[in-house]
Design a protein that fits this description.
The chain is α/β, with parallel strands linked by helices. It holds the Pfam family Amidohydro_3.
Amino acid sequence: MNERTAPSRTVLLRRGEVHSPADPFATAMVVERGQVAWVGSEGAADAFAEGVDEVIDLDGALVTPAFTDAHVHTTSTGLALTGLDLSGAPSLTAALALVRDFAAARPADRVLLGHGWDAARWPERRAPRRDELDEATGGRPLYLSRIDVHSAVVTTALLDRVPGVRDKAGFTDGEPLTRDAHHAVRAAAFAAVTPAQRTEAQRAALAHAASLGIGSVHECAGPEISSEDDFTGLLRLVAEEPGPRVVGYWAEGGEEGVAKARELGALGAAGDLFVDGSIGSHTACLHEPYADAGHTGTAYLDAVDVAAHVTACTEAGLQAGFHAIGDAAVTTVVEGVRAAADKVGLARVRAARHRVEHAEMLTPETIAAFAELGLTASVQPAFDALWGGEDGMYAQRLGAGRARTLNPFAALLRAGVPLAFGSDSPVTPLDPWGTVRAAAFHRTPGHGVSVRAAFTAHTRGGWRAIGRDDAGVLVPGAPADYAVWRTDALVVQAPDDRVARWSTDPRSGTPGLPDLTPGGDLPVCLRTVVGGRTVFVGPGE
């Protein structure tokens, strides 16, 4: 594998394994003018060898569609990659030491930025106090978001930059900031990031995505999350430089949101339009109180708001979408979308493929409603891997019984609800094969899906979520977005043994995928190609 491939060139890849429904035993593929032109066997590949510009010998490597990460915050991901990352800190003491070292190493930063602390996993079981952070930074402005990005701890110097913050909802002295207070300090912190720093962070995030076989990301931006300059800067960057595709969503409600999404070049007024917050920060909106707090979380929108937004988006021909995690928030979305369907027609609402991000606390009734209304569930399997299980954060917040109902991917698929997988990076890392593994080996029995179904949700599912049914799969005519992997023998893994036994029979024609059994090595990306253009080549390739 040599120089970066331009999309106008004709390329033959051969002597590998090509994951394609067009031919489950394919070993070769031809790419021409940025599209898949042919998929087939090694013998037939000889007929193409003379007429192509380049032949790539796969040497047994696996070729798959490139992954789509359906929920990413690109700049925040890049800042986490290049800044202070506390996700690996084993304790509060270790986290404070990392803050101290980071502050010493960045004397010129106007505001210190960090991310990823999770007190639920620390032996101290508490967040850093402001006086501890003041001491660790020498009194400088510091913003540290919790792993779920729905709360943060800050220094006094940053608070002092935000007039009136102590009077805003979500400010309790001595506690992490949530709600309006959090949004205000986050805006102040990110306003201190220079355009050059922002572009550097975006480049870092997209390069990292490409190195993991990710060919597309859905950027979930909005006035409470990032900024218009951040959003348009990212879209401008990807238009000018090779890399993963970026589909932009702008989370602003109603007629104003529709107009702003159009103005900024967004595909929809969707993404993180918050109906509620997160479970970890006690801001997800529940029908019954938290097991470890005497309240039901926070509702940012009601069903009337949802209905108005869905109606406006449907009539404008745009996607609507919402962030909804708690069961009460999901109910609000369902009631609002149904009211919109009563007004503009169910067929128009279904055709728009409106989205719900996260959708963690579902019931049989809300799952059925998602199917009826044509809602796409844009979900993050890594959340279950990180916070699920009998003694995980979900169980601490909700009790083991409610925690076992979360993220029911199998029930969603059985009901016919379209799934699109993502990371919500930097909440959980960009890690596509790890995401597929998390969905297949769910921590709650009965909620997992086959590796094949999970892989589809992380490739073709992301394209379908933006209204494209012709992509995310290696068949003639599809965009040449693919990744090349070094991996061990291919297998078929399914939760049901009988399905797995039949699928591995050659008569079934089921193409294999890497063995993702927990504990084993994940595939290593050798090359990522987007629209026929190589955007990543691994070392030594």
